[in-house]
Amino acid sequence: MSITLDIKLKRADKIYSEADIVSGILVIDTNSDFKHDGITLTMEGSVNLQISSKNVGIIEAFYNSVKPIQLLNVTCDVTQAPGRIPAGVTNIPFEIPLKPKPNRVLYETYHGVYVNISYSLRCDIKRSFLSKDLQKCQQFFVQYKPGSASCPQLPLKDNRKPVSFELSPKNLASGGSGAPDFLLRGHLDTVCCNISKPFKGQLTLVRCAAPVRSIELQLVRVETCGCAEGYAREATEIQNIQIGDGDIAQNIPILIYMVFPRLFTCPTLITTNFKIEFEVNIVVVFEDDHLITNNFPIILVRE
Ligand SMILES: *[C@@H]1O[C@H](CO)[C@@H](O)[C@H](O)[C@H]1NC(C)=O
Ligand SMILES: *[C@@H]1O[C@H](CO)[C@@H](O)[C@H](O)[C@H]1NC(C)=O
Ligand SMILES: *[C@@H]1O[C@H](CO)[C@@H](O)[C@H](O)[C@H]1NC(C)=O
């Protein structure tokens, strides 16, 4: 006997916003009929936090604040009563409104290193004790509706002015020791970014005493787990894009252009138990491997 169970969502992109109806069909394909003791559909969503190993020593102090945070937990009986599924393909339509638990917010789906926010549908077909229960999971994605106040407490939210920068050995945090004499000028279009639009700007190597091998744009996530009792803050690289390669010509503008990768970014999120923030580094690598970095905290918004 072979039975396959599938959950097919109506939306091909599987993206939903709070208050949307998540609809689709359960598809049961079996080569012979079988008895069941009830079919349920569970919609779940949670934030999972993890402390990096280097912070494990301090974890006991705030263990409670790194427990998973459940955002959504709804179970529906597709059929409560025991019954029989006939041989062949059976389609069972379903519709579940996407609503958070009381006092919770459905944050956007996000796949990070120390913080994950994920949503899924699970179908369980219970069977009598001699047969194995059947289970199938299907992930879906949550996105804020553009314009909904996603994170009201964000600083800089209205700062849409271009940000100019000038980099030279004398304004490096490291004091520029070992760096050749150089001057890099540029601007970012904004540091408060529409997550569905590319990150843009421009830079120019005005002068440089040594050959530059590469100019890179690095997108970094800064994840904080914990709360007032203690916290762990970790910055890790999401992606690194080379915007200038080889012996970079002087006084020729170089475009800064980067698309925010889906799932690995989300609107900047600051809550009492965790934070997800983003930064951009502009990295200049000289021929002799000497490397200088300039860091820009950015804010991502869904608008
Ligand atoms: C998040 O998911 C990734 C990939 O599935 C996994 O490597 C990571 O450990 C998860 N982190 C948490 C905090 O669950
Ligand atoms: C989700 O809700 C069900 C009952 O509807 C409950 O049995 C289960 O423990 C809940 N899950 C969590 C993680 O709270
Ligand atoms: C953000 O970007 C999306 C996609 O390009 C666009 O539809 C939307 O209008 C933008 N929002 C604002 C406020 O510019």
TrEMBL record:
Gene label: LOC115874115
Subcellular location: Endosome
Subunit structure: Component of the commander complex that is essential for endosomal recycling of transmembrane cargos; the commander complex is composed of the CCC subcomplex and the retriever subcomplex. Component of the heterotrimeric retriever complex consisting of VPS26C, VPS29 and VPS35L; within the complex interacts with VPS35L. Interacts with SNX17 (via C-terminus); the interaction is direct and associates SNX17 with the retriever complex. Interacts with SNX31; the interaction is direct.
Biological classification of the source: Eukaryota, Metazoa, Ecdysozoa, Arthropoda, Hexapoda
Keyword terms of this UniProt record: Endosome
Xref: SUPFAM superfamilies: E set domains
Its biological purpose: Component of the commander complex that is essential for endosomal recycling of transmembrane cargos; the commander complex is composed of the CCC subcomplex and the retriever subcomplex. Component of the retriever complex, which is a heterotrimeric complex related to retromer cargo-selective complex (CSC) and essential for retromer-independent retrieval and recycling of numerous cargos such as integrin alpha-5/beta-1 (ITGA5:ITGB1). The recruitment of the retriever complex to the endosomal membrane involves CCC and WASH complexes.
InterPro entries attached to this UniProt entry: Arrestin-like_C, Ig_E-set, Vps26-related
GO-annotated biological processes: intracellular protein transport
Protein name, entry field: Vacuolar protein sorting-associated protein 26C
A Gene Ontology term for the protein's cellular component: endosome
Main location: other
Pfam families (UniProt xref): Vps26 (PF03643)
